[in-house]
Amino acid sequence: MGKSKHLGLLCLFLGILAIQATAMTSVVVTEDPIEVSKKVISDDPTPWNEAEYKSITDELGQPRELDKMERNYLLLQSPWLGTEYLQGVFDEGVNSIPVEQLLDLLNLATNSPVQTSRKLAEISLRQALLEYEEAYEIAANLKSDKSVAYEEGIAFLQNRFGYLKLKTAKKLLEESGKTEKPGIDKKVSKKVSDRFRSLRRKYSDQIPLSNALEEVKAFYTLLEEVVSGLAVVKPYTDFTQTITELNEVQLRERKHWRSALEITYPREGSVWTIPDPASIQWNTENLPAEKTIKFYLLRNNTVIQELGVFKNNSLADGIRLNSTLPKGDNYRIMGIELFPADKFHTAKYASPYFTIDKRDPEAPAPVEEVVTAPEPEAAEEPVVEPEPDVVEEETIIEEVEVVKEEEMVTVVPEEVEEEVIAEEVIEEEKAVEEEEIVEEVKLPEKRTDFDGRSITYVKELEVNSKIVQINLWDHGRQDGDIVSIYLNGYPIVSKYNLTYQKKGFELKLDPSQPNDLFLYAHNLGRFPPNTVSIEIIDGESSENIVLNSDLSRCEAVLINVKD
Questions:
Q1: By three-state DSSP, how is residue 26 classified?
Q2: Are residues 155 and 267 in the same domain?
Q3: How far lies 475's CA from each of 1, 491, 530, in Å?
Q4: Which end of the chain is more exposed for a tag (fewer CB within 10 A), N or C?
Q5: Where do the H-state alpha helices sit in 347-490?
Q6: Burial (Cβ within 10 Å: 0-12, 13-18, ≥19) of residue 328
Q7: What is the pLDDT of residues 150-177, one digit of tens each?
Q8: Taking a C-beta distance cutoff of 8 angstroms, is the pair 481, 396 a contact?
Q9: Which pLDDT belongs to residue 81?
Q10: pLDDT-based confidence at 359, cuts 50/70/90?
Q11: Are residues 279 and 137 in the same domain?
Q12: Residue 523, in any domain of the structure
């Protein structure tokens, strides 16, 4: 049975469900998800009555979370919906599954289709019950006029479809047992075996969820072509037809309430002048006024200053820039929503390039560009909150797409550069003098900050040679981390996209002093903070270290060369 049949007319039972779905979704959309939620509940109160909830939990039991193996079955629900379908199915942070687990699932879909159909029904019931319970609890508060947060209104609208999925999964469970097991001939078995071998060659260990979904889709198409396995279990094909339609509506709901951010000032051609205070202006969609936004100053794609956290009132002024910033026309502002209502989406925006200039602090300030908020009467004084802690930083889960830069930008104050040059001249003069003067050697102090970020040392090592080999790779999850590795303040790896594959480098250490090796994060990847595994190899011995960094701090290790 082909995909076109899956999306055809519903049978009588499915038609009833479609009518119920229409009753739940045909509401007048407003800007307030709480009011929309109340209208959904008043239009169709049955699912949100205590008696209905009790009858369902009495029959199915209390909701229980799915384990990792069980969640893999949900790949069979709607494989043609694309990767966004997976959001809300797998735990946050899970972005791949073992290849062998996927092959086991496809093997069951081929050789044990009835058993697989029943298992999918049981897992879909539990997943739907989790969604329904979350929506029911919010509905209970809405009905009792208890205070409901903006995020809870959106959560209700996105999870209310669990009630309809329950009926669909129960129907699959009831009918799967009445289906006879389809036979598998040798010709079909060979095609399946060839596909399995191809998958093993293509993926060594883990397979990204997006790729797994594509492979399930392709494999199901193969089963349709050979008229075998799960593709000929009619209860399953009916189930996927209905569940796909419900998931499509659920995806549209999620996108409808998705937050958006646009920075309208500074714009292309704008000029910020140091030491004058700067202003930022922005517009948002589906982001209430009480929400907060964090802004960063970038030079090309490198964060060089955190500008602060502001309430979403469209205007922030009185921002002070670092006086050591160099002039340039390659600056941008990046804004990121904190504590997003949709945990799978964060509103973010990078402005066009603009210019930063400098003037003599004693000279009068030039006439500034007038920045007016869209609704000045509603604008309030910007509320600058304390720097968010690690929990706040974890809400920034998506990589901001910015133009790549070949070399990392490092802000070095002009006065510091002059001091370094002066020290180098003095050292050269000392080298010329052949006097045997014994002086007390003062070792340099540990570096405590770099480019506006604090540095924390996690370990101190001792090696036998001034030449060592290091290997680095993404620690834990490959999630788009972009990092640089610095040795004594100089980049040895610039803007490298971490993967599971080890990347090797040779380091030349300074035997006269402790060498600081630290991790500098250019983004937060999908799962902050940036984490890198580093293997330091000194001849036959080696040391493994894990360093973490975010946009405000760097972790480092000190390396000493034995005398």
A1: coil
A2: no
A3: 44, 20, 9
A4: C
A5: 390-393, 414-432
A6: middle
A7: 888 988 998 999 999 999 999 999 988 7
A8: no
A9: 81
A10: confident
A11: no
A12: yes
